[in-house]
Write a structure and sequence with these properties.
mainly alpha; Glutaredoxin
């Protein structure tokens, strides 16, 4: 197991703006989950989801109010443990409630122009760093992506 030399900053980005790759190998993801000792995945009916923009706006808003990691983990639980569509507004609101975000505040935060601008800025930073695969971790100006990034965080 590896340890990162710094505490990472979680930065929501839209994968669709970083790569044109849309097909994800479910069996590879399931094998990784087994290796990590995670529970079996419950895939949403639509995978990959048709859109994740609202979820990434919600994650961006959550980050701005200090709940980015909590929201992201809750959203992943809803998606991969609950089998819910991450693009669905109800899934996003449930994830928000799990980390004590009021539904009205979350709905308003998703619609704010400043939230959209923050997400776009994060996407531009990722593109400038050459990110094409998620997850990605940047340390001392070097970007690690996909399996290499996961190995840094302890996944083998």
């Amino acid at each position: 197991m590896s340890t990162l030399p710094v505490v990472p900053e979680w930065e929501p980005v839209l994968a669709s703006q970083l790569t044109s790759e849309t097909a994800l190998d479910r069996s590879q993801i399931e094998r990784l989950a087994v290796r990590l000792g995670l529970q079996p995945l419950r895939w949403p009916a639509a995978w990959p989801p048709p859109t994740t923009e609202t979820a990434m706006l919600a994650a961006t808003y959550a980050k701005r109010i200090g709940r980015g990691v909590a929201f992201s983990l809750a959203a992943f639980r809803q998606t991969f443990a609950g089998g819910r569509d991450i693009g669905d507004e109800h899934t996003i609101l449930i994830a928000g409630a799990a980390c004590e975000m009021h539904p009205a505040a979350l709905s308003k935060g998703v619609q704010m122009a400043s939230t959209a601008q923050a997400l776009q800025t994060a996407n531009l930073r990722a593109q400038a760093a050459g990110v094409t695969t998620l997850p990605a971790i940047q340390i001392d100006g070097r970007t690690y992506e996909g399996p290499e990034a996961m190995a840094l965080g302890g996944a083998k």
